[in-house]
């Protein structure tokens, strides 16, 4: 299938108002598409189905499923993207003075709670609405592909729920068979060749790492924690620690233990989640939720050397789940884009600096809009 043909299928699916998702996993050059054959809303209760899931921040709400059994699956290898898309580089501040003041006040309120030892860390966000100069979501998706090779890039649509696009750097959970990998991701600064991480960022990263380890230990074995490293995501840098092991319980139990992580919620989880729901003054919906492939069967060859035909005869079909935290995302409505950005607040946070961090993060999406 050609690049043009693949994207025509996606555009036609959108025009006839049928659900679909097109996406590319990090550091790959393959785009996948799941095109649902009807407009029903399917939900996943226990993460036992096969398909693509889209789950909100508030885990008490339903996880939406695009089921494989009611969908057409298409794959596009080595798409022609970079030469086809030119992305404007105009920077544009679109926030209002009222929005800035509101976010600074929100951060200040959180710092007061931290001083009272109500919680150690909370992640606070805001929504910014901008006008679109390009309203075709497939074109915007291609711009994201061209700019963010290290991210999970997606365009998700359901006529009864909405239209979302994103380029997220954060893995919630990858599972192959019973082996899993996840990550703690925290701390943000603009890209530089020799980054210097300060105490606020390293403390925030350690809090996230410790939470994930503590949450996983009752449910896994052979737990392994890697070294903390710097991850580049477009024009931003983050701190990342990889964590892996073997599952000894159901996938839904692990996801429930992890989501929402301190990287998008806070510590302790339930207290900070309630603080967010009570004080952010808007609904996050699918921002800081999770999304991705659920229980997809893949043929895993034992020997990756294609010339070794004899060994290639030995292969297994394994179940693959790849879930990502929905960061660096936007929701499209008619000619508007709603951008969602936030940051972690600890005792060392500065309200003005925290607002500026959200401005920097918003550039990820604005880069493909203007």
TrEMBL record:
One Pfam short name: Chorismate_bind
PANTHER family associated with the record: ISOCHORISMATE SYNTHASE ENTC
SUPFAM superfamilies reported for this sequence: ADC synthase (SSF56322)
Protein name as it appears in the record: Isochorismate synthase
Gene3D superfamilies in alphabetical order: Anthranilate synthase
Natural source organism: Aurantibacter aestuarii
Domain Chorismate-utilising enzyme C-terminal intervals: 101-361
């Amino acid at each position: 299938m050609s690049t043009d043909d693949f994207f025509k299928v996606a555009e036609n699916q959108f025009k006839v108002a049928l659900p679909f998702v097109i996406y590319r996993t990090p550091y790959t050059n393959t785009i996948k598409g799941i095109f649902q054959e009807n407009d029903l809303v399917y939900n996943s209760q226990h993460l036992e189905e096969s398909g693509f899931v889209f789950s909100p921040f508030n885990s008490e709400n339903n996880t939406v499923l695009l089921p494989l059994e009611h969908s057409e699956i298409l794959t596009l290898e080595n798409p022609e993207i970079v030469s086809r898309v030119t992305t404007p580089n105009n920077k544009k501040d679109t926030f209002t003075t009222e929005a800035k003041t509101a976010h600074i006040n929100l951060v200040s309120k959180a710092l007061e709670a931290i001083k009272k030892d109500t919680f150690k860390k909370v992640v606070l966000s805001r929504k910014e609405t901008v006008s679109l100069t390009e309203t075709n979501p497939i074109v915007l998706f291609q711009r994201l592909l061209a700019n963010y090779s290290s991210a999970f890039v997606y365009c998700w649509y359901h006529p009864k729920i909405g239209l979302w696009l994103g380029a997220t750097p954060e893995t919630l959970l990858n599972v192959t068979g019973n082996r899993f990998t996840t990550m703690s991701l925290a701390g943000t600064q603009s890209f530089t060749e020799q980054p210097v991480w300060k105490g606020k960022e390293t403390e925030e990263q350690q809090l996230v790492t410790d939470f994930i380890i503590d949450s996983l230990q009752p449910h896994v074995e052979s737990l392994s924690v890697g070294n903390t490293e710097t991850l580049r995501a477009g024009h931003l840098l983050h701190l990342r620690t990889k964590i892996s092991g073997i599952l000894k319980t159901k996938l839904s139990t692990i996801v429930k233990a992890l989501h929402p992580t301190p990287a998008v919620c806070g510590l302790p989880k339930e207290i900070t989640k309630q603080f967010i729901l009570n004080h952010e003054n808007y609904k996050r919906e699918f921002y800081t939720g999770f999304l991705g492939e659920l229980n997809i069967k893949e043929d895993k060859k034992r020997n990756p050397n294609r010339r070794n035909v004899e060994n290639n005869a030995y292969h297994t079909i394994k179940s693959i789940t790849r879930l990502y935290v929905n960061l660096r995302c936007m929701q499209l409505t008619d000619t508007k884009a709603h951008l969602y950005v936030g940051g972690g607040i600890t005792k060392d946070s500065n309200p003005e600096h925290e607002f500026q961090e959200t401005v920097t993060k918003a550039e990820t999406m604005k880069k493909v809009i203007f």
